[in-house]
Design goal:
Length: about 575
């Protein structure tokens, strides 16, 4: 009887818990799903890239090639998921802030303050793109996102969802207009934010740098590990707590040879005995214990020198590094003086609202991007990110590459241009990408004259300009596979970084850069001719072979298998798109 009662009680409790679980709300961001046209169209049309050869800029073939992609960034990110999955080191984006001032469109309509779904539309737009962007980052990769108060809280929850809360590196407040906006009723807004997230916080690192140039100048010495300055090893700060009487285990003798080239914790004949005593005779402490001192000594981070009075002093090599604060206050970050006016100077007119300070981007990249990093900005707008990458390379001799993606919207000039009777082709030349982003990068690379006639020297660099295009692909037919393969040539060149065409035959093409080759075989019957064409090439070759299935024809390449890396197309591309558009 008791067992039956216990079982019934247990069943009742289970049913109660089931009901509770159904009622239990999940923590996180919830929004109304508003389908986006540019996403939906990919169910029937697959994005590809088409090069605009007339906009190519090449100043040095030995240097990296940067990319500018004109088109909707969802389509560009889809392509990049094939060409650059897991290859991007840093992503910086400055998406629309959703102020309600008709500053962005959703499904070809401006989103204004009266739109009841304005937040859901913004979150939906950002969610689809951030999920694609995350797949592009290397395991050590970092994404930086600019935002103001309008979507601050939604973006935080969204980023925690996409990148996971444990990979949040920090939220930085950037003072971009110290005087504040004087037209606001309550607070005059003077700052915005930057969200820093890692793909994997456990393995990523910031670069060891100093953001403040005046501080950086003090690191006036250099060895094989990098720049440093000498700091006395005596702990002079911290008041009485760093006196000998309070920390006796930090007070110990260090012995230095006459030539100052040998330092030891062991007493040695003829060596000077050095104690942490100041010039006024105060007994203080060393900065570390004996054990830590010995470790740093063995690492080459300790040396001895004589001061002006001839006394031997112990110094540490203090490396070029600093604790990065979460508030960035610098006159160089002022958006008008170092954003708007910089862009006006380059283009000769004001045609873009609210570009970011060039120096804000310079510092964000200096902190996150190693010298050979690939940097992506898929809300490129005025091209400040590309400009900052070129400036940073010029300053430190780096070989960073940028990929900029932006649409070619007319930025509110549609009606005016139509009234002027311009053709559709002429109107397109007034869009953001062609009138702002590309001209800026072109002038920064090649040099330009300001409105005052001042000549600005070019920073150098290379650029390839692409537009997103589409291949009709409602179903996986042989005809559609052939069509996609023919239209994927530029995508494969972007994937391999091989842009110079060296062979163009009926059945195959071969491309190269300064140290790498890639081949595309459209017809299996051309394999033997292709092998003859690459016979004299000594480096490894990436070879893409058209196949209706997943066959890479390894048997046909058995005699040169050490030389080639084989991939079937379009199946490799289709696998990526199936994952994205499922």
């Amino acid at each position: 009887m008791n067992n039956k009662m216990e079982i019934e009680k247990l069943k009742t409790e289970i049913e109660r818990l089931k009901k509770e679980l159904k009622k239990k709300k999940k923590y996180g961001l919830v929004w109304e799903d508003k389908p986006e046209d540019v996403v939906e169209m990919c169910k029937e049309k697959l994005p590809v890239l088409k090069e605009v050869k007339s906009k190519e800029i090449i100043t040095d073939k030995t240097k990296p090639v940067n990319l500018l992609i004109e088109g909707d960034n969802y389509h560009a990110l889809s392509v990049l998921n094939y060409t650059h999955k897991g290859k991007i080191d840093v992503i910086y984006i400055d998406p629309p802030y959703n102020t309600g001032a008709r500053d962005w469109k959703y499904n070809n309509d401006y989103v204004d303050e009266n739109d009841g779904y304005k937040h859901s539309k913004w979150i939906n737009m950002m969610s689809s793109r951030l999920n694609l962007a995350r797949k592009l980052l290397t395991e050590k990769g970092i994404i930086v996102i600019a935002v103001d108060h309008n979507e601050l809280f939604n973006l935080g929850l969204l980023c925690d969802q996409v990148f996971r809360e444990e990979n949040r590196l920090g939220i930085v407040a950037v003072v971009h207009k110290s005087e504040g906006r004087n037209q606001e009723k309550f607070f005059g807004t003077s700052h915005e934010y930057m969200f820093f997230y890692a793909k994997n916080k456990k393995v990523c690192n910031f670069q060891k740098i100093v953001l403040d140039d005046s501080v950086a100048a003090s690191f006036d010495k250099e060895d094989e590990k990098g720049k440093f300055r000498l700091n006395n090893y005596i702990r002079t700060g911290g008041g009485d707590q760093n006196l000998k009487i309070n920390k006796q285990h930090f007070f110990y003798p260090i012995y230095v040879s006459k030539e100052l080239n040998d330092i030891s914790l062991e007493k040695k004949t003829g060596y000077s005995k050095v104690l942490p005593i100041t010039g006024s005779g105060q007994e203080r402490t060393w900065k570390t214990t004996k054990e830590t001192f010995q470790d740093r000594l063995e690492d080459g981070e300790i040396l001895a020198q004589k001061d002006d009075g001839g006394n031997v002093q112990i110094y540490e090599k203090y490396r070029e590094d600093q604790v990065i604060k979460t508030h960035w206050i610098d006159v160089r970050y002022h958006a008008i003086h170092h954003g708007t006016k910089v862009l006006e100077n380059i283009l000769g007119e004001k045609i873009f609202d609210f570009p970011k300070s060039l120096y804000l981007l310079f510092d964000a990249l200096k902190l996150t991007a190693k010298s050979d990093a690939i940097i992506l900005d898929f809300f490129a707008g005025s091209g400040t990110t590309g400009h900052a990458v070129l400036e940073l390379n010029k300053k430190d001799g780096g070989n960073r590459k940028f990929i900029l993606c932006t649409n070619n919207e007319l930025n509110g000039f549609e009606k005016e241009l139509l009234e002027r009777g311009l053709s559709e082709k002429e109107i397109q030349e007034h869009g953001i990408c062609r009138r702002v982003t590309y001209p800026r990068i072109n002038k920064v690379i090649n040099g330009y004259k300001t409105s005052k006639g001042e000549k600005i020297e070019g920073l150098g660099g290379n650029l390839k300009y692409f537009k997103t295009d589409f291949v009709d692909y409602k179903e996986s037919t042989d005809r559609n596979k052939i069509k996609l393969t023919k239209e994927a040539v530029e995508m494969l060149s972007v994937k391999e970084g091989t842009f110079e065409e060296v062979e163009n035959r009926v059945g195959f093409k071969i491309f190269k850069n300064h140290d790498h080759y890639a081949g595309i075989i459209f017809d299996q019957l051309a394999i033997e001719d292709f092998k003859k064409a690459v016979k004299g090439i000594k480096s490894k070759i990436s070879v893409y072979i058209f196949s209706l299935g997943d066959d890479s024809f390894e048997d046909e390449f058995e005699d040169i298998r050490q030389k080639v890396k084989l991939s079937p197309i379009p199946e490799a591309i289709l696998k990526v798109y199936r994952r994205i558009y499922k």
